Amino acid sequence: MGYDYALVHLQYTIPPAVALTLCYYPLSTSLGVYKILFLIAIAVISTTPWDSYLIHSQIWTYPPNAIIGPTLFRIPAEEVFFFIIQTYNTSLLYLLLSKPTFHPVYLRGQKLFNDGRRLGLRRWTGVSVIVACILAGIGMIMKSGEGLYMGLILVWAGPFVLLLWSLAYQFIIGLPLSSTFIPVVLPTLYLWIVDTLALKRGTWVIESGTKLGWHLWDGLEIEEAVFFLVTNVLIVFGLIAFDNAFAILQTFPSLFPTIPTLPSPILLVRALLLPTTSYEDERIEGLQEALGRLRAKSRSFYLASGVFQGRLRVDLVLLYSFCRVADDLVDEAGSIEEAKHWIAKLNEYLDITYGKSYVKVERKQDLISTFPPSAQASLRLLPTSHLSPTPLYDLLKGFETDLHFSSSNPFPIKDEPTLQVYGAQVAGTVAELCLELVFHHTKGSTPESLRRRIVQAGGRMGIALQYVNIARDISVDASNGRVYLPTTWLKEEGVTPEDIIKDPARSKAEILRQRLLNSAFEIYDEAKGAIEQLPAEARGPMRVAVESYVEIGRVLRQPGYKVKAGRATVPKLRRLRVAWNALSHT
Ligand SMILES: CC(C)=CCC/C(C)=C/CC/C(C)=C/CC/C(C)=C/[C@@H]1[C@@H](COP(=O)(O)OP(=O)(O)O)[C@]1(C)CC/C=C(\C)CC/C=C(\C)CCC=C(C)C
């Protein structure tokens, strides 16, 4: 009996497991835990007979003075623990690195598949390489002798890799390298180093006669290097296949009307086996467009979107896209008439959608086709069946207020109550819509009276965010001839809206920016408690959404902070820290 192998764990595998667990904990979800347990179960079940055979055939051995003693089918307990901890560590690294990835946009239906012809070529190249490895492995086993251990690795791992590649090649090829290459390479390099040390110390021994005798570097047998590489490939491909299946379930409500929080293996396989001809390419393209819009236009909500899950995440991205498109149509219109035209069209769109128009719902598509091409998908995909019409109509009323910045009434925000109404219309409504999606997509029921209180607080929070938005954009708005600071406040400081337009950097503007931020933070303090009443799975993500936007206000409140390039921004690391703290909050 000895502790050498146990020490390998204490020194090399447990410390990264602890570090990764601490990093992942705030981001953890029940689905994440389910994936890890699922993978560990498969790793133990699939590796045990193979490993047991290798030990039985004396291809590798453990000196009795290196292990504690208990075994499972001849496999030392420390080795069984190795399967578990390696799977755990590599899975956690993958889950951490792929957290921001929005998987639905990597699906490829028939049309998108044909557009990217290289996908088919790469699929079959992959199949050929894997099959060649399996055949080479069979050859080595048949010849026995020095190629035996390598042959056994290839023949054992090859079919699993082939299966996973065949099911999930779209994702394996398409996902960013941070979700494919890095979670394979980092743990593999690390385990190569650990293995070199263990082999040198004699913790485990690869017997001669059944190994090729090639070394990747001094002390690292080629078989060991290949073994750790393929096991990490298997773990990462397994997780990718899981994410591929879940993305199919998450993206197509028409094919899978309801999905459980933890989908069964049978449902996952059913999703993966669905022919790509059944995928709705239009929906995938619409989601790609919506995500691109979110990424380009809002760093705060883009970051926050990464911590929402499943269909709630999909619908929030689509809602953002609709709000952004509608706001831009009005803001970027060449004239007041054009802006009014778009607001009227958007109202007509809502009338048809919610059956308030004499125009039949079948004509909705015709109406949508009269919008600019870049706006059409966001109108088509807005999840209106989960959203009530009132906040959407109110949002459009808020956009109408922006049209009042005309020559007859150049500064419509007369006083703070008017600003509050404006904030409620353009942002309180958005909060209500987000909360409707939260209640729809989370399990457990929130009593109606509590829902009402949460929505009311959400509406207030929307106003707080809108104040932060106005405080941030004083210069940008002034350059467009707009002043959202209440005229009564300006008067108290002895300035006019025209003065702000002429010189938005003047000291009085800074005083009023701080006053507006004080109001924003008062409202924020009063409303934030309601987030804790939300269904558990939405609390952390909603905190991230709110906090990452409110942080812009905190930056603006720093003594001596000067707004550069027209807009205050939160540095990336600070944004990540805010998100982390928001998720760690208990
Ligand atoms: C995570 C995720 C993807 C969330 C999506 C949130 C969403 C749907 C945002 C829509 C934003 C938008 C374009 C609205 C149009 C009207 C508008 C311009 C509103 C202002 C947003 C500023 O966005 P941005 O900085 O990109 O805009 P400009 O470049 O200046 O044009 C607003 C400040 C409103 C944002 C308000 C919310 C998202 C509501 C937040 C409150 C909650 C979610 C409720 C919190 C819950 C409780 C219980 C307190």
From TrEMBL:
Pfam short name (any one): SQS_PSY
Catalysed reaction, written as an equation: 2 (2E,6E,10E)-geranylgeranyl diphosphate = 15-cis-phytoene + 2 diphosphate; gamma-carotene = all-trans-beta-carotene; all-trans-lycopene = gamma-carotene
Membrane topology (UniProt): Multi-pass membrane protein
Coiled-coil zones: none
Pathway involvement of the protein, from the record: Carotenoid biosynthesis; beta-carotene biosynthesis; Carotenoid biosynthesis; phytoene biosynthesis; all-trans-phytoene from geranylgeranyl diphosphate: step 1/1
PROSITE patterns, A to Z: SQUALEN_PHYTOEN_SYN_2
Keywords noted in UniProt: Carotenoid biosynthesis, Isomerase, Membrane, Multifunctional enzyme, Transferase, Transmembrane, Transmembrane helix
GO MF, any single term: intramolecular lyase activity
Residue stretches spanning the membrane: 6-25, 32-50, 80-98, 119-142, 148-165, 172-193, 225-249
Compartments it resides in: Membrane
Gene Ontology cellular component list: membrane
GO annotation (BP), single: carotenoid biosynthetic process
EC number: 2.5.1.32, 5.5.1.19
InterPro entries (UniProt xref): Isoprenoid_synthase_dom_sf, Lycopene_cyclase_dom, Squ/phyt_synthse, Squalene/phytoene_synthase_CS, Trans_IPPS_bact-type, Trans_IPPS_HH
Principal location class: membrane
Family: In the C-terminal section; belongs to the phytoene/squalene synthase family.
Protein name: Bifunctional lycopene cyclase/phytoene synthase
Organism this protein belongs to: Letharia columbiana
Lineage: Eukaryota, Fungi, Dikarya, Ascomycota, Pezizomycotina
